[in-house]
Amino acid sequence: QVQLVESGGGLVQAGGSLRLSCLASGRTFSSNAMGWFRQAPGKEREFVAAINRSGGSTYNTDSVKGRFTISRDNAKNTVYLQMNSLKPEDTAVYYCAARNTDSSMTYSSGASWYDYWGQGTQVTVSS
After folding, report:
1. What is the β-pairing status of strands 116-117 and 58-60?
2. Whose CA is closest to 25, among 69, 70, 71, 79?
3. What kind and span of H or E run contains 97?
4. Are residues 80 and 20 in contact, defined by beta-carbon separation less than 8 angstroms?
5. How far apart are the C-alpha atoms of 121 and 20, rounded to whole Å?
6. CA–CA dist 72, 79 (Å, integer)
7. What are residue 88's phi and psi, to 5 degrees?
8. pLDDT at 64
9. How far apart are CA 119 and CA 39, in angstroms?
10. How far apart are CA 121 and CA 97, in angstroms?
11. pLDDT, mean over the chain
12. Do 96 and 121 touch, CB atoms closer than 8 A?
């Protein structure tokens, strides 16, 4: 069982930056691929970024490429999402997700692939 707790959300002006953190419980964090998703009001949850177990491989959705960076610190059981050049359309509740995987080469952009989810943190970008 993995428990995930997100933090770092808030209100920021367009063009600003935020860094989200997701702290995972348990001793097996380094065995988990991690992902960030977001859900805006009235919209479906969408993939933002993913990272493999070691942190050596990442994948971002096109709309955030060049602006958002996913990273992880396995010693701290934490995955991060650095968000720069924020836009009003980035406004959403951001969730982190985890899945235990045997492969160091695996992550996914599909929400159904992940087994564990945090409660979410609100990010609001004003114009």
Report:
1. unpaired
2. 79
3. strand 92-100
4. yes
5. 8
6. 4
7. -55, -35
8. 97
9. 12
10. 13
11. 95
12. no
What amino acid is encoded at 16 in this protein?
G
Give the total residue count for the chain. 127
Q: pLDDT tens digits for 18-49?
A: 999 999 998 789 999 999 999 999 999 999 99
Q: What is the DSSP string of 9-31?
A: -EEEETT--EEEEEEE-SS-GGG
- Spatial distance between the Cα atoms of 105 and 91, rounded to a whole number of angstroms: 31
Query: Could you give the C-alpha distances from 97 to 12, 89, 119, in angstroms and in order?
Result: 24, 21, 10
Minimal CA–CA distance to 36: which of 22, 50, 19, 56? Answer: 50
**Structure confidence at residue 83 as a pLDDT band (50, 70, 90):** very high
